[in-house]
Amino acid sequence: MDSAELRTALRNAGLSQYQAEAYVALLQLGAASATELADACAVPTARIYDVLRDLEANGYIETYEQDSLHARACNPQTVMEDLKNRANQLDEAASEIETRWQEPAVDRHMLSIVKRFETVFGRAEELIRDATSEVQVSVTPEQLEALRPALSRAYENGALVKVSLHPEQGDTLDSVDERLFEGVATEVRRRTLPTPFIAIVDRTGACFAPHADSVNQYGVLVDDYTMTYVFHWYFQTALWEVWDVIYCTQSNDPPIIYSDIRNFVQDAKPLLDEGKRIVTNIVGHKTESGESIEFTGELTDLYYTAVSAPDDSLSFSELAGQVCLTVETEDETYSVGGWGAVLEEVEANRITIEVIS
């Protein structure tokens, strides 16, 4: 440590700039008159006497008269003990701050704009960990690995976990080990282009951040049922439907579980056209009261308003209009809609095909 670093350390320990200057100079001189010491350091002569008096009061030096005021450094043992005590105190303070500190939660508003990606990612982890119905995420392999504990918890909770995997800028996703997805994802699709980070959870929360090379860096946190739907549509149409499936835990045989009514209609319509009997389990809530409801019955009709003339297969975007199911139980007939249902009796959160016969 050179003299400049020593002076800085002494100032950090509580000495003033002039006190640190005078003390370091006196250590080098051993003993000196007040005027000699002022000449040897950057302390003005008019201030040197006050500086010496303060240093003596703190035990750093002692002064004596010899034709004029002289000073010499005291045995440094006292000084060293003082510095060590200060260091220990600062170390304890750092530990106490670490113990007491908890990351402040981001206030939950309908829409929040934040600057740090870490804030977006942290909120996504929090939402995913508590998910019980559905998780949709757009991530890189590195982000997927970081989210693994939260996604695993959601998967264990019974949530359907859909992962749109994309590369970092300049990278490719030529081959991916399927073992990476076991226990964390229901279905994975591979996108070849860099994509924003997105997490959509249980229809109530969404987290968004542009990809790392975007000109504008910001994050959007959504805590609103209706606004989350906008991100859901973006995910489904741009990041999901048009890309290849690289991993899927669901089979073509019942039970087949759906979290979105439009995906269900895409698969169920051809079966109904063939005259198949489809028994479904519906989990959702009544649109008028919000009361939870679950029932099992036969699918007897499908109604949808496609935005273009339907052919043998319906794309997700073609089903942008109203989509409705008619399900007959032993006791009652229900009209069932999807996310945001208004006209139907029931909004379905989950549809399960239990029997195809």
TrEMBL record:
Gene3D superfamilies: Winged helix-like DNA-binding domain superfamily/Winged helix DNA-binding domain (1.10.10.10). Residues 111-354 form the Transcription regulator TrmB C-terminal domain. Residues 10-67 form the Transcription regulator TrmB N-terminal domain. CDD domains: PLDc_like_TrmB_middle. It holds the Pfam family Regulator_TrmB. InterPro entries: TrmB-like, Tscrpt_reg_TrmB_C, Tscrpt_reg_TrmB_N, WH-like_DNA-bd_sf, WH_DNA-bd_sf. It comes from the Archaea. Belongs to the transcriptional regulator TrmB family. This is TrmB family transcriptional regulator.
